[in-house]
């Protein structure tokens, strides 16, 4: 029984092939509008949006706009006589009722669907001639076409059924052509009924606006207040962003980004979606804040550049960096007050050792560099001038930095190869043999400086130390890694103490 059925199918298929071969179109002009004419550079076009007026009525809006720098007939003089659409051959059904209006008034003729004789196989067009428009009258004209079925109910009633879409475009996209009386110009437009705009999608959950603040304030007046650099800000922003992203209890709905980078405040904000209990969030953020504070302190103990200052890490809503308002019901504050050491913490001295006593100060950060020899490291201390606490006092009015003494373990005196001195007006560093006070005085003396204010501003003293001696061992004091120096005036009565760390 299988074979006869197969035979019938083959016969049906070949009949279909024969019927499909009954086509038309010379193929001379294979593309819409299937005649020789100027497709671009014209004063006319059809607006891309087609409105659907219901009852299978589709309205096209005509537009006039002369392209810049186009003096051709099509741009300047052509009238607008005929409207065409590229349509499917299957829509060429006898008896269908097509109607057209121009700005609501019946058009002079009815649209017709015809074969395109010089198109390719099956090319078909819908045509509405006798528009009678020109450049002064066409702009904004609404041309509506109603697609009605024939008495058998057949017909293409939607643009999806009617229009051959340009290659790659979805069903319902139509190509129009607008002809002048001479059929010289046929500007094309691609038009469609836009899909209904989707209902506005619910806005993404805003979550709570959450900010992390890093602040530094002076607890006592300090000679060289700390300021956040751009690099510090960027680094904190990255820390906060990754910390928030890593939260296991809430979702970041707006990425955390740097919002403020002033010298004393870093502000990093984002959005956090959290619906759990406030105390869980609070505990989590407290941990984060403590961790960030520790990082800001460079690992736990206060670095020299933060002495006399309080650094804090606060998390909460948008507002006061020190006391942020709660957000998601929570705000946390963590702070470390880095107290300025007292004179008792420093080397013994018989002079005014208060910071800011004289206009001379040491930068609270020293730098480590490659040493002068293969087995040495170099540590450099920088100097600057400041406003002294009592400018007219005996120390405040001094104008010479006579010598600098570092508080060091002189057991390592043989391990220091040399001391470099470079006031700001010197082009290079002068290397000197180290000079220590009497053994046991624990003092490295850099004497005979006699720097003026301007020489001290940007001056540098470097130590070339054997690599086997860590700087934290060489420098003495309660806090490992802090190096103390006394900056003497000529009278030797003023010797403000400064501390530097890496
Ligand atoms: C028309 O279709 C036939 C059969 O598919 C094909 O051989 C012919 O090349 C086509 N003509 C044009 C103009 O595309
Ligand atoms: C445009 O058409 C209107 C109305 O038919 C006519 O009055 C006008 O003179 C025409 N303008 C041009 C530039 O042909
Ligand atoms: C320091 O110098 C002394 C004397 O040259 C030497 O014996 C010692 O190994 C050096 N290093 C340390 C860490 O003491
Ligand atoms: C620095 O000043 C002191 C005291 O006035 C003087 O003895 C010394 O020679 C000066 N040193 C230099 C390098 O100018």
Automatic annotation (TrEMBL):
Signal peptide start and end residues: 1-21
Keyword Signal: yes
Stored Pfam families: DUF3707
Record-annotated Pherophorin domain positions: 32-187, 347-496
Keywords from the UniProt entry: Signal
Record protein name field: Extracellular matrix glycoprotein pherophorin-V11
InterPro entries, per the entry: Pherophorin (IPR024616)
Organism domain of life: Eukaryota
